Hints:
- The protein has 332 residues and is an alpha/beta fold.
- It has helices at residues 72-82, 103-112, 128-133, 148-159, 175-182, 221-231, 244-253, 258-263, 290-293, 304-310, 312-323, and strands at 7-10, 14-18, 25-29, 44-50, 88-93, 116-121, 139-143, 164-170, 199-204, 239-242, 273-276, 281-283, 295-296.
- The protein is built from eleven helices and 13 strands.
- The longest helix is centred in the middle third of the chain and has 12 residues, at 148-159.
Amino acid sequence: MILKFDKTFKNDKYAILFNTRSGLEITTGINGNDDPFVLEMPSLLDIGVMGTCLHKCEFCYQGHTDRPNMKLSDFKRIIDEVSYHTNQVALGGHGDPNQHPDFAQILEYCRKNNIVPNYTTSGINLTDEQVEASKMCGAVAVSDYEKAYTNTAIQKLIDAGIKTNIHQIYSWDSHIKCRGIVEGHNPITWGFDVSKLNAVIFLLFKPHGAGKNLRHLIPNAAQLKFFSSIVFTPKAKFKIGLDSCLVNHVTRHGNPTKIQSASVDTCEAARMSAYITPDMRFMPCSFADESKWSIPIKDDSKDLHTIWDHSDKFNSFRSKLSIKKDCCPLGL
């Protein structure tokens, strides 16, 4: 099979080949250089377009402080600065991105600039108009809150032909459920055809934000060891994915194949990805303490490229990762 890549980037050290339809991305060193440890700019940018959330979940890593949503003009400025290098944008923040008043325009501007937008939603109040707009996305993830609106949103997105994932938090008390999913159990006991589901993505619970005092939900060593022993040989009818935080743990205990090892990466914050808050603060990772790691970019004299290259905060984050790549600089 000949792979077709419709977006490419190349400098004198590395090349990135990207398929905007499938999401396949290959990054490789060129001209005798190894594969890059850090990119010229993020290939994946996490943008927090939402500043307000109605749910107030007790474990939310974003916390419960409301702030204004990101302005469309600010979002466009970000895209204008990164479009030459960034391939995908993950829309997030403090709430459901599909509830942003400029949701469709945000997706349209990404596509206009040859960037694939993706987002995660709780699914609550997901309208037909939002589903139609979501056809511009590479994929949409629905967080599993085990509510009726979760199931309804998944069904709506699948029926619309949208690549649909489920985000499942992996924690001390969800270990048995996550284990069951990997072993072939249905992720949700409901009537949709699970073979039409693209993937279940497991996200490591982070005791951050509103969940900073819920450290009892951190999976223990025995749970992580067992989960690691089965996750690379799943029996599910759909793909299994892990966020980079969980990858940091399972690769220590599991036995991935050569292909799996080549397909996963540990923490890529400040190396290949970064986060921008709704109030325009640039930081290595969305789980980082804003007061310590963020850099204001509201003043448009501070361009993202200069910060990425020269900021002490980004370089410090990278330095910690370069010493031990599979260890979170934030201690998560």
